[in-house]
Structures
1.
Amino acid sequence: MFAGLLGRLSWHQLPKVPITQIGAITVVLGVVALAVLITLLGRWKWLWREWLTTQDPKKIGVMYIVVSVVMLLRGLGDAAMMRVQQATAAGSSPGIVSSDTFQQVVSAHGTIMIFFVGMGLMFGLINLVLPLQIGARDVAFPFLNATSFWLFVAGMALINFSLLIGDFSAAGWLAYPPLSELKYSPGVGVDYWIWALQISGIGSMLSGINFLTTILKMRAAGMTLMKMPMFAWSVFASMSLVAFAFPILTVTLALLALDRTLGMHFFTAGAGGNAMMYVNLIWAWGHPEVYILVLPAFGIYSEVVATFARKKLFGYVSMVWAIWGIVVLSFTVWLHHFFTMGAGSDVNAFFGITTGIIAIPTGVKIFNWLFTMYRGRISFKSPMLWFMGFVVIFTIGGVMGVLMSVPAIDYQVHNSLFLVAHFHMMIVGGVVFGYFAGITYWFPKIFGFRLHEGLGKLAFWFWAVGFCLAFLPLYILGLMGATRRLDHYDASLGWQPLFIVAGFGLILVLIGVGFQVLQFVVSIWQREQRLDLTGDPWDGRTLEWSVPSPAPFYNFTHLPVVTERDQFWVDKQAGISKTRKFEDILLPKNSGLSVVVGLLAFLFGFGMVWHIYWLALLALLALVTTLIVRASNPEPEYILTAKEVEKIDNALRRRKQVV
Amino acid sequence: MKVTATTLDIKQLEAEATDKTVLGFWTYLMTDCVLFASLFAVYAVLHGNTYGGPNGHELFKLPYVLLETMVLLTSSFSCGLALLAAQKRNRSQVLLWLGVTALLGLTFLGLELSEFRHMVLEGNSWRRSGFLSSYFTLVGTHGLHITIGLIWLTVTAVFIRSRGLTDSLLKRLTLFSLFWHFLDVIWIFIFTIVYLYGSLNV
């Protein structure tokens, strides 16, 4: 009778495959080691008060980035397994993992990299920089912001739990039905996928609403939209896409969950279901998602180029129009992900043309950056290197994309490694390089010291060269007919040498990652040598550089007034220094309820995955209660008086004089 | 907010906060609108996939649905009256009209559930066909929103009863009324596209 209480959960669900066992043990040991370390250092209280319950977007941003970096390492581990498998599994050799495990690894890699690395780094950087850049002290809804983060963590925890108990989806990163339907994937894998994404996706949607409101309502006095820094513009556009696209994902995941749990027939092979509807729906979200990730990266590049070329951004207005052109077009191209659906030549032609057109605003942006560099006094700091690597890789990948926008060509390379190479060039070359540039660029603003430049440059070169070695062969392999998610191939095809080259490329990338980790360790170790005492380590242009580093939790002692684009740069040129003024500041109090919401969302998801419905129901009821408790709190804020602000500011200044 | 000696213009700050909340809530409603639009699109694709089961013409009873519609529209009217009373700071009237709204909302939910129950008992559950899956999901999602609205309404009413019509509660009431009217609009679309159009024998 008690067995029923645990749904599908049982001891038999513990991992049996050696590779998964290693993964599970790594996760458990990692968590235990972390817990022991915190206990030994006696830092639980500090962690809870200073970090977990914080409502300060800068700290939330740091937490997002920490989680994402850990997930990046896991995603890279998955990538390494795939590379080893494909380099070895030719002819009589079966490779290192079974076919089923391989499919799980592929699915986990894609899901984690997009949702828990890409999205996490993006929201992290937005949290760090956006309020500072628009001259605000906070985001519009601080509690909601913290809650979004904890929903993200809940989703992340759920997906990693699949390593410990049960298995993960083997249906690809977008879980196409009918394969992902109960009949063909009866295990818990797809359910883990659904609920991890559903929970973190709702968090993303709430973040989208939050940042949209922040941008529209909290800009500094005088900062009209056309005076916003380009990063703020790109966030504005990206968050608009979030608001329009994520509800579609919510619906799609919910319908698949209804099929699997209540026996509905949305996407089933029989009983009036329509599997291609799923593919349409998921890409109606999925294509904008690509731009959700890349637009903020474009914003970062715009800041980085202007700063390190020491010129104002070329073609500001055209840049803004290009961004919004991409926003609109991104909703008109989703069918290019499945030209082979057979919608007919007219439909395919329409989507082929709209896809080709997207290259125009993107090209405008590339040229704007190049013209910004033209005749600039460029300093080749590591953020700038990431940018230049991006231009090369992204342009190659982009041209391949335009090539595939021709339906006739797409029929040839559909579902092949050619496509895999293309989108990795866009997402790694475009998105990840951009976020790396952003992290290096804004690191001193958040922590008060710079990252080690030499190690950063080494990391870049290993990444860039390794990345090209890892993915250029995939173009050729794709043209030779190698399909994606391939776990074994015939030796006579002659693909193995190219797969081995790709594997070698990944080794270089991993060395690059090693240098990045080393960069963090060395920089923290020798932080005294790299202190940023001016608050303006790169000779920056925008408002975030006008406050001391690390930026105080209230951001500005008094809210800035803006009359120009790049106000801080203009002031520096005119020799105007900031006047010291202090005012009372209203700030949000810490709240542990966001953490509770995240925990309950996790329990709800876990209950749904394993069909432990009493747990899911209890968690849901507790969630509603938590929200009511929050709603009954009449005093979520406190006042920091001008005197206290002055004291903190003086302390920051003394630090400058002492060193 | 605690009364602390401060140079901050608390009234001004609260007005700004309300401004932000209203814009944020409108944005949320638009995301919800996209959510329903997706469900409508799914229904549009699947409405003919009856897989040998009944179609809308055989299932829907228009007079019954008209009754549901009237109940829901009236609840929107009483919600409007509650808001008017709130602006006049008349607490007992606010509670009265909120009570009426809750009652009508509950009635609507009861009518909908009994319609669902009827269909399921006749063997036409969501498992029957793609059409019925999309029907139950679209209409049910609206019902779920109504349920959430009723919880929200109850909580707000309880706070108003115990704390009086504070500014922050007035703000919440405004947001609730936006939500409730929005659900009305969605229902109009459901009534037209699902029920009226579905009842046509085409």
Note: Chain A has a mean pLDDT of 94.
2.
Amino acid sequence: MPGTRAVSGPGVHLAASFSPERLGAATAITFALKIDPPGEAAPPPLSQVDFSYPANLGFATSGLGLASCEPGRLQAEGSVACPADSRMGAGSATVEVPFGPVLVEEHVGLELFAAPSSDGYLHLAILALGSEPVIATVVITGVLLEGHLQINVPVIPGLPDGPDISIKQISATLGGALTYYERVNGRRVAYRPRGIGLPDSCPHGGWRLGAKLSFQDGGRAEAGTAVACPARRSRAHRAGPGRGG
Amino acid sequence: MSGRARAAVVLCGCTLIAAGAASSEAAPRARSAATVSVKDDGNLHFLKASGSTLIDEGRATGTIPGEVKIHFTYNGNPAVSAQITIYGAHGTLEVRGTGHLSSPTNPNPSFSGTLTVTGGSGRYSHAHGNGKLYGVFHRRSYGMIVQTEGTVHY
């Protein structure tokens, strides 16, 4: 049930999915956002994305982010600077790099980590790594609020004296196939963190998710979607916090 | 306890102070009125989850010993909440608590706050009171260490 509303910016499409999707079980959540400017123009550079989701989804109780990664070290040293237990997900983005009159697309890998918190909320540091045509490492920060994941996008400079780089598409998954480690009888044992808990019940019309975008030029856009309720028979399997791994 | 880590709940030890001369033994035909200073503890392990609410259970020891079940809600806001039911020998005691969670990326963040006794059944059917709530939330196992202390009137 995707919907889009350009308040004063380009059109935006949001899609979301849960995998697996079983009531009361843990899941991974994928957001996919596409920014569609009218005509051939590049989208304006983003300044903030605010993803909204039902507050009773178990992001904070997911068991993700049991350690933190300092954004400064992430920027300087890359993901090797981050503890395995700080990894929260991964994704990709497509950006448009202006080379004179030509727009060149670049595919960028995203790695999501928990960052240190000074305010009690879970903070994120997202490493964006591009290699062709421009080698670039950008760290984007975000914060998990009650029912919101707010991501602040810095200005990403393009060529000297040229326009800034625009984000055209983002897709990111929180949770999924992550490997964490714990000490069991003095040994370091790998396990898979549980993931984001789905409630025991699904609201009429499914779980509604949204995205509000703010752009560096002051424009705004919104999009919404809903993840349909799972079939009732799926309720049989309920996941506990197994050792996994 | 394969796969499930333990939780420890701490409800604290207590001192019973009879209010006036009334007690259940001394005045069997009148509803007893007592004020109890409660300090209990216990161990809680993960039972199940529903979204941002974890349900743990275990054994409480102290002033009002018994089985304990807690519904602990943490939705990203460091202000957490808990609904606690103690199944004691003389009835159940219902408690609501709110607290503040210390650090979201600590594997075992602590929380502290206040609690309100909201009622119960049996001897505690008219219970009320308040106190303090402390705890540790084990983010890997979803177990908890909870400590309560306060005053219960019933």
Note: Chain A has one domain: 5-227.
